[in-house]
What we know:
A: 12 helices; B: 240 residues; Rossmann fold; globular
Amino acid sequence: xxxxxxxxxxxxxxxxxxxxxxxxxxxxxxxxxxxxxxxxxxxxxxxxxxxxxxxxxxxxxxxxxxxxxxxxxxxxxxxxxxxxxxxxxxxxxxxxxxxxxxxxxxxxxxxxxxxxxxxxxxxxxxxxxxxxxxxxxxxxxxxxxxxxxxxxxxxxxxxxxxxxxxxxxxxxxxxxxxxxxxxxxxxxxxxxxxxxxxxxxxxxxxxxxxxxxxxxxxxxxxxxxxxxxxxxxxxxxxxxxxxxxxxxxxxxxxxxxxxxxxxxxxxxxxxxxxxxxxxxxxxxxxxxxxxxxxxxx
Amino acid sequence: xxxxxxxxxxxxxxxxxxxxxxxxxxxxxxxxxxxxxxxxxxxxxxxxxxxxxxxxxxxxxxxxxxxxxxxxxxxxxxxxxxxxxxxxxxxxxxxxxxxxxxxxxxxxxxxxxxxxxxxxxxxxxxxxxxxxxxxxxxxxxxxxxxxxxxxxxxxxxxxxxxxxxxxxxxxxxxxxxxxxxxxxxxxxxxxxxxxxxxxxxxxxxxxxxxxxxxxxxxxxxxxxxxxxxxxxxxxxxxxx
Lengths: 297, 240
C-alpha cells in the first residue's frame, strides 16, 4: 500500500488518501471470490489485482483527470481523495449489506484464516505474502530500470511537461500508474482477512501505518516505501508484543500508535525520510569509523 | 516548413502572444527580443503546452493546431526548453532513452550511438551512467540538445541554448548547432540571449516584442541594423 501511495504521489503528483480503502476493496474482492464463487484464497489475489487496477483506472478517469484538467493543485487533489475515501467506504458498506441480505452470509467482522494452508507450523499467509512482496518489488524494479514505460514513468514524475515534450503519452502513463495504484493495495488487502478481523471501515486503522511507512520512506521511490513499510511493520509487531509482556494485553489494540510515533519522529528529525538522508556521507563516515576501529584493534 | 497564422495564446487568462503570424523556411532561424517578449511562450504554443486562444499552426502541411504534444513530437518537432531540458534524477543514458522514446528499441540504440558520436563527452564511461544533476552547466546544455536530437527531428526548437554559459562554451554550443544542422539537415529555430553570436549563425531572424512580431529580415540585415544593435544586443558586442 505504501508503494501505491508513493507511486501516486511521485509520478502523478496526487497524495492519495484513499489508498487504504483500495486495500479494503481487495478484502471484499477476495471475500466475494472465496465465499460466493468458491475460488481459493490465493487464486483470488489475481482478481484482487485486476479488480483493484480497474477501479484505479476508473478513479483516474472520473476524478483525477477532470480535476487536473481544470488546474487543480496538489492540495485540492488531496482533499478530493479524502472525499473519494468517504465515498468508497460508503459503497463498501452498501455492498456488504447487499451480499449479507442476498446470500445470507456474514459480511462484517469476518476472518478468512480457515482458507489458509500451513507448512510445518508456518502460516501460508506469511510465506505467500513474502513471496508476493518480493515478486512485486522485483517486477517493479525491472519495470523502472529496464522498460521504456518505467523510465517514462520516472520522467513524468520529475517533470510532466518536459516528459510530454519528449513524445511521452502522459495520459497513457498516468493510466498505467493508476492501474498499479489500485492493483497493489487491493492485492495487499487480499491478505488482510487471513490474519485480521475485517469490515468495510478497516481502512481507518490501516491508513496510519501506510502513511507512516511513506513518510519514513520519503515519498520518493518504491524502494524507500518498501523499506519504510518493513520497518513500520516490524516495529508495530515486535514493539507492541514486547510492551504487552510488560504492561499487559490491553496495549495490543494501540499498535497503530507506534506507527504514529515513528511518523512524528521522522517529521521532526529527517522530514524527507530515508530517501532524503545524505547516504554518501553516512557510508563514508561509517567506513572511516570501521577503519579507525580496525586500526585500534 | 513551419507557419503560424494569427496565433493568440497565453497561460489561462494571461494573454501573451498577440496575432503572431510567421513563416519559417528551411535553415537556421533566430528569434530575438527582450526578456518577457514571449519567445518561450511562442515555442510552448507550437508544442501545445499553452492555451491557444485562436489562430492556426501548420508544420510540413500538417495542421498541428490543438494537437496533443506527443503527437506533435511524432511529426518531427523537437523542443529543447530554456531550463530543465533534462531529467535531473535520471542518468545520462536514461535521459537519452527518454529523448528517443518514440523510436523502437533497435532504432533507439543505433540513434543513441549516432548522437553520442556528436557529443563524445557524454559517451565517456564515467558519464553515461552519471546522474544528470551531477553534470556541469555546459554538459547539461549538451545533454538537452542531445535528447532533442534523439528524436531524429525535422525541426528543432532551441530555447536559449546558451543561457548562463561562459563565452567559450557559448561558441562551442553554437558550433555544435551548426554541425547538427549541416549533418542532419534538421531545420533549427532558436531564441537567443546573446543575440549577436546567434545572428551570425542564423539565416533569417525575427524580432518579437510585447508578444508581437515586430521585424522579420535576414539575420545578416538585423545584425547590421544600428538601431537593433544598440537596443537589443549592443551589450554583448562589447563582451565579445
